C-alpha cells in the first residue's frame, strides 16, 4: 500500500488533523498523482459538518490538479510528469445504459464519488484531494491542457463542469440569452463560459455590492433580484436560466424571465425548492436540475477553457489555512473560490 499525508476529519478530532493514510497499490488501469492544488467547495463544508457523526474518517476535496507520479501497466495515454486533473467522480459501473452512452455522471448504479464513497473493487472508503497523493482509474484522470494555471484550473473540475453541462446540453451559443442566478464559485464560471460561447448574459444577485463584480466578469446585464420592477422588465427575455444559488429560495421570479417553453436549471445545493405552479404553467416553462459532468463533457470543458483562457478566480491558501477557508466560505467571504496548496501539507503538522 502507498502512504501519504492527508487532512483527516473524524469523530475523534474536533477539527482536521494531518494524518498518514494509505492509498491502494496501483491496479492495471490506475494513475497516481501528486496533488498540488484542491478547491474548497460548499459540498465539502456539508460533508465536514457531518463527519463527526460517522465512524468512517473523511478526507474531503474533489476538484484537484497535480502531476502524475506513476501509472499502472495498462495505462498508455498518461505517463509520469504529466499535469492532470481529477473531479468528483473516480469510477462508475461502465455497464449500464447511461455509462455505455457516455453519461457516467448518471450511472444507474451510482458513480463512485472522489471521497466518502465505496470503491467498487475492494470496498474501501474513497479519500479525496486534501491529501498529498491521489490514486484513481485512468479514465477519470484528465490531462490538464497546456496554458491553464494549475491552481486556478482546479475548480473547473467541479464548479466549472457543473455549469458547463447545462450550457452545452441546452445548446447555448451565439445569440442565446442566458440568466445566471447567484455570483459565487459556480456563478462566476457560468458567466465566463456563457460569454465565451457567445451568449448575452444577465446576472441576478441579491447583493447590490456584486453588481460591479458581475460586470467585470463579462455580464452584459446585472439585476438586483429584490428590485421587483427590474425583474419584471426582464420578463420573457431569456432562453435559459442557470441557478447557482446555494440556499433555499423561490425560483418563480426567475422562471418568469424565461421565454415560452424555456428552461431553468438548478445547480446549487438547496435542501428544498418551493415553486408556484403558475410560474411553470404561465410560460410552459421547465424546471430541471443538473449535476457534475461525464468524462466526455469534462474533457470538452477543459479544452474549451484552454482555448478561451478560462479559469476560476481563486484565493490560494496553504493547507494549514483550511479552517480559515471553511469559515470564510460559510460567511460568503470569498471571491470566488478558495484553493488549498497541498504541496505545503505536513510542513506544519498542526494543519
UniProtKB/TrEMBL annotation:
Its EC number is 1.1.1.2. Keywords: Metal-binding, Oxidoreductase, Zinc. It catalyses: a primary alcohol + NADP(+) = an aldehyde + NADPH + H(+). It holds the Pfam family ADH_zinc_N. Residues 11-340 form the Enoyl reductase (ER) domain. Gene3D superfamilies: Medium-chain alcohol dehydrogenases, catalytic domain, NAD(P)-binding Rossmann-like Domain. It comes from the Bacteria. InterPro entries: ADH-like_C (IPR013149), ADH-like_N (IPR013154), ADH_Zn_CS (IPR002328), CAD-like (IPR047109), D-isomer_DH_CS1 (IPR029752), ER (IPR020843), GroES-like_sf (IPR011032), NAD(P)-bd_dom_sf (IPR036291). PROSITE patterns: ADH_ZINC, D_2_HYDROXYACID_DH_1. GO terms for molecular function: alcohol dehydrogenase (NADP+) activity; zinc ion binding. It is an enzyme of class 1 (oxidoreductase). SMART domains: PKS_ER. Its cofactor is Zn(2+). Belongs to the zinc-containing alcohol dehydrogenase family. This is alcohol dehydrogenase (NADP(+)). It comes from Marmoricola endophyticus. The lineage of its organism: Bacteria, Bacillati, Actinomycetota, Actinomycetes, Propionibacteriales.
